[in-house]
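Q: My collaborator sent me two sequences in one message, no labels, and asked for predicted structures for both. Can we handle them in order? The first one she listed is below.
A: Yes, handling them in the order given. First sequence, followed by its structure tokens:
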Amino acid sequence: MKDKVKKAVLAYSGGLDTSIILKWLQDEYGCEVVTFTADIGQGEELEPARLKALSLGIKEENIFIKDLKDEFVKDYVFPMFRANAIYEGEYLLGTSIARPLIAKTQAQIALQTGADAVSHGATGKGNDQVRFELGYLAFNPDLKIIAPWREWDLNSREKLLAYAAKHGIDISNKKGKSPYSMDANLLHISYEGLVLEDPAARAEDDMWRMTKSPKEAPNENQIVELEFKQGDLVAVDGEFLTPAGLLAKLNELGSKHGIGRLDIVENRFVGMKSRGCYETPGGTILLKAHRAIESITLDREAAHLKDELMPKYAHLIYNGFWFSPERLMLQALIDESQKFVNGKVRLELYKGSVMVVGRESANDSLFNAAFCTFEEDEVYNQKDAEGFIKLNALRFIIAGKNGRKF
């Protein structure tokens, strides 16, 4: 016996899966359905989602389409990049960082519309079910969560298509639709499934959608200048744009030069390994530049502490704990470290590579040529290094006098 639900807010893309879920909720739960479609820069027209929802009997006042691009970059992507977060050494967390914003907004719509349930289309095998549901419960622990993939028996594409045909759900493919399982937003595109389920198989060349192949990228390099204020990007080549505009600009540059492709096998939170391919052109440029400006503005021990904490921070995001007390604690420490991360970085973009060619900070640089020069100086007494070395070696000296061998 299913729990009684009066109204459910569905995270709705207008695609096959969520359109079937919409109808399934109406039939199985007998509830009113509210659809929520988030625009986080996935590059698709959202009007078809509204029209599809209307065709499935959703009232106009129960269709929510929200432009979240600037909020996504300003309040989620930028804080993450202040931490230089990378999961398992490579993944820039493009899908992971979008889910908390979608979940939060969906929970807010539930409150606004008086809904007592929320629903998503994530499968029972993946990370997204955890990310969505931790987000829902952080904002409203009383919400009923409906995860159809953990309930229904529509566990194959054939069964989904049969259900759609039976109920008159439009199953025509969008023009240029990829056969891969994809997730896109302003930060990245991910690809899973088909040939990618064999980790030994090479990804097909025509799979990639966001970037040029490095082999086909321009034969001329391009120099780009990024400006930072308190750790956040504020301008590209002297042009001050909105957060979303800045990331879109970096995507344009990175895509042109074949930057940001990645093919990895990662460890999912639920326990299995998964092979995925990613394109993160703007994020790849941003990470390189942010580490470069930190290299001249961050104190050594502050920088090293950040590097030690980063894997924990990345794990929290990957596993869905964006709204957790521990992530907020880490964020406060990270944000404190960014007060003096101000300045400009120049990068060379060329055939899939990003190289730092210059960095400067007018007021906050800790780089002092008078101390590090190989030429004659008047500020550093090289004899001081002798005592410094002996003090650091004292424990070795004592152990050696005791006859201890390493």
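Q: And the one she listed second?
A: Here it is, processed independently of the first:
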Amino acid sequence: MLHKYNYLTIVILSTLLLGGCNWMSEISDVATDTEDYYVPVQEYKGEEYTLPNGKKTDRIANENREEIEKAIKSFFKEEYKTEVKVHNIVGNVDGATVMVESIGEPHFYTYAIIPIDTEKEIVLKEKVWSQEMAIESAIMTGIYGLIEKDKFDNLTNLI
């Protein structure tokens, strides 16, 4: 008799295991439209991007958005002779990470970091910086995209 209960338990558990998660995929298909959720990496502008410990600096950055945009645009103009437009500003532990897109050619997306003094709640606009080779790498990628435009267009069509 105990043997029959073991078989029954195994049958019920295996049925739940094999078929139990099937309903979840149906719900996720309805809940999110993948067309809206995914974007090609070449077109990602930093929406919905967050960094740890950035709530306070995020608030300060959003309150000073115009000042930050002006400082970032000035930084790219002086350091890289490039005009950019700001897409997103995200607070981080010591400042704000600013996602930008170049205007004109070479076309690229990158970011810069602007420090924020959280005690005085001021943006240190003269101290804009970026991680080593982050901007340079983005510019080189944009130039490579210009040189191999036909190949990248063909790849995009294949995908």
